[in-house]
Structure formats: structure tokens, C-alpha cells
């Protein structure tokens, strides 16, 4: 059975910037590009080659300013048969719909060029009133929640959650979307589709994938580029210790998962959201 794979294409600068002191308020886009130092083009090419090697397809949810930095890299993703999705302009946490609207306006060039159908909120965190905004901008679906249940339509947008394994099969509370990752959630389910849990369980998440596939349901997974092709900044013991203090949930993201992904690619077939649902 086919499953769904997505890649949140962002630089380590976007995800770990605050922890490393590279704050958006202090560094311009061009300065962040300089700090990235061609990491994204190099790692994207390696990911594309890996997908080609195992004959897999994926949706790339892309930070808009990466198109401003490296347009040919983003064009290459599309030319090699993968879906282009949107992941905001600068990876700001969407605490309200106004922030989303600001990000969308800054991404005019990216949105005009690719007209993406799909959206993913940074850190899988989105407010319910943001869905009407996504609809206004022409999006058709979002994957900005964790759940063990299926698609929920919110204000005209299909919310397709990242896969989770529920301890109680008929947990009604799990059906209320959108829903982000919290400690409380972990007492009820394992969001195995997250890159965090691929880091923790490795290729053993095949068990969860198979359990969904036996019910005729696709597993929906995602990871980040720096989980496969690690940057030296995020593997330093001093940085991991700092991360443990400020955001321990992100610590597993510093574990390399390339071998685990290769094993998953050997055992399972993956498509993009567009390839599976025909958006």
C-alpha cells in the first residue's frame, strides 16, 4: 500500500535560530542566507538523489524565503516530480491568523510561481481561524495537526493530520482538530509520523505503518533535512545541553535518521499528498 511522505524544507537556521541566538528580529533574510552557507542547496540535492534511488515521491513544504535565496533549488524539486507545498515565509510560529496573513503577503513570489495546494504550519501549530485565511489564498489542504483519525474539513480546507497511534481506538478527543504536539498528548497517543518519533524509534515505526495499512489507511510521515544530513552546529554537546534546558521535545531532532529512513524506503512505498489524494 502507498503511504504519504513530506519534508519540511527549512534550514537549521530557521528551526534552531532562536536557540543559537540567530533571531529574526536581529538578522535579516540575507544575513540568514549567509549563515546557511549553501546548506539547503547541498542537502536538498542529496535528499532528491535519495528519493530517486528508492523510487519514492514526497511533498516538500518549503519556507518561502528559500525560494528567494536559492530559486533554482526549489525549481529542481518540482522538475524531479515532487509536490511543492508552503511552510510560511520565515518559519514564524502561527499564534494567530494575523501572523499567517503577514507571512503569506511576504511570499507573493513563491505563491505566484508554484500555486501550492498544500500547507504545513511551523512546529505543527495552527489556530482554527487560520483555515479561512488559507482558503482565501487558494489552498486546498493542510497537514498541521497530529491525530489517529482521518481528514477533517475546516472552513473549506482539508486538514490531513500527521499519523498517530492512539492507545484507545475510539478516543473522541482525538477527533477535534487542529491539534499540536504536547506532553499531555503523549499520554494518549504516539505521533509516530513526526520526525521526532522517527528519531526515537527509527525503522521500528514500520509496526505502526503496517497497522494502519492493514486497515486500508495510509501512514503520513515527515522529517527535516538536517535530520538526515546533520549540520555541525546542532550536534555539539554544548548545544544539545542548551536545548535540553529550553526545549527538551526538540532534542530527538538532533539524532541522525538517514539509516532509519533508508530502511523505511526499502519496506514501504511513499507518495506526495497530491499523488495520493489528487489535489
Word description of this protein:
With 279 residues, this protein is an alpha/beta fold. It has a single domain, classed as TIM Barrel (Alpha-Beta Barrel), CATH 3.20.20.370. The protein contains 14 helices and 13 strands. The protein has helices at 12-16, 29-36, 39-53, 64-69, 71-79, 97-106, 108-114, 130-136, 195-201, 206-213, 225-228, 237-246, 258-267, 273-277, and strands spanning 2-9, 59-62, 83-86, 118-119, 141-142, 146-147, 152-154, 157-159, 162-163, 165-166, 189-190, 220-223, 269-271. Strands 1, 2, 3, 12 and 13 form a five-stranded parallel β-sheet that branches. Strands 4-5-8-7 form a four-stranded mixed β-sheet, with helices on one face. It has a two-stranded parallel sheet with strand order 6-9. β7 and β8 form a beta hairpin. The protein starts with a strand and ends with a helix.
Number of strands: 13
Structural class: alpha/beta
Count of domain modules? 1
Strand content: 5-15%
In whole angstroms, how far apart are the ends?
Answer: 19 Å
CATH topology assignment = TIM Barrel
Morphology call: globular
